[in-house]
Specification:
The structure is a homodimer of 133-residue chains. The two termini of chain A are 18 Å apart. A three-stranded antiparallel sheet of chain A has the order 1-3-2. In chain A, a hairpin with a 2-residue loop joins strand 2 (57-62) and strand 3 (65-70). Helices cover 59% and strands 11% of the residues of chain A. Chain A is mainly α. Chain A binds a DNA duplex (30 and 30 nucleotides) through helix 1 and helix 3.
Chain lengths: 133, 133
DNA sequence: TTTCATCTACGAAACAATTCGTAAGTTAAA
DNA sequence: TTTAACTTACGAATTGTTTCGTAGATGAAA
């Protein structure tokens, strides 16, 4: 029943820009991407066109340019990727994944606080719903 | 500087078997994999042969069969995959990844305890080293 | 209107991952 | 020794992803 046909790595980079910045032209996405990595303009364009056929994005034509929007939601997409990683690399143990994610880096005090607050939901499910959709 | 040329999904499934069960023949790995998914024997064989050329595994020939061992370590490999996911899908926020990993499922009391114990390392670095390499 | 920069469309190459058929070697049992 | 069951080697087809060149459309400025 789930949507989201699993974006490739390149597609994910584009989705991230659209999630972060909202609806954008190819030019805008491309400029954003090339801050980080090398890529030809038509490469970005082609990828976004393919994403359109996969319904990962939609677009509106205004004048000569097209403005693309993400059609898959960040939350769901990330969940799918996490689930996949959990399965294929951590044998399903979320705790192992969490510790691995935190283990190598030094989380900031704020991050730690966020995580602790988040964890509280699970052992004291009184007034608050542990659901954050 | 890092080793580990990033295993593909199929390679990861095989590595998991080797990590879990230790050195194994192609037959053993294959039987394990086909508990979960469909695959021809020579497909598994070929994949393991490719992994050999990539130095993801090594092998010992004994009689007619070959016994394969993982040459990359689970810890490092998982770290690399987590780092990648962190970058391409979570914009580098480990806290977000952690919450996403826990958010959709109900962690068991034991898992929660493990995670809390783990988190203590970070704000009270007295007797214990927060480093798990 | 002409020119120029910029856009989209799209074919196709380059690469990578997966899958499997077939051949040939090995072992053990008949 | 012949046969049967199994093994490895490996070429090659298939499928998916990424990359980019070229062509043609569009709009703004000269």
């Amino acid at each position: 029943m789930s949507r989201t046909p699993k974006p490739t790595e390149g597609e994910l980079e584009i989705l991230q820009v659209l999630w972060r910045n909202g609806p954008s032209t190819v030019r805008e996405v491309h400029d954003e991407l090339t801050k980080t990595k090398e890529a030809g303009y038509t490469t970005t364009l082609k990828l976004m066109q393919i994403m359109l056929t996969k319904r990962l994005v939609s677009r509106k034509e205004q004048g000569k340019v097209h403005t693309y929007s993400a059609e898959v939601n960040a939350q769901d997409t990330r969940q799918e990727l996490v689930d996949k990683l959990l399965e294929t690399a951590f044998g399903g143990s979320a705790a192992d994944l969490v510790m691995q994610a935190l283990g190598a880096r030094q989380p900031s005090a704020d991050e730690l606080a966020d995580i602790r607050r988040f964890l509280e939901q699970f052992d004291q499910p009184h007034s608050q719903e542990p659901n954050n959709d």
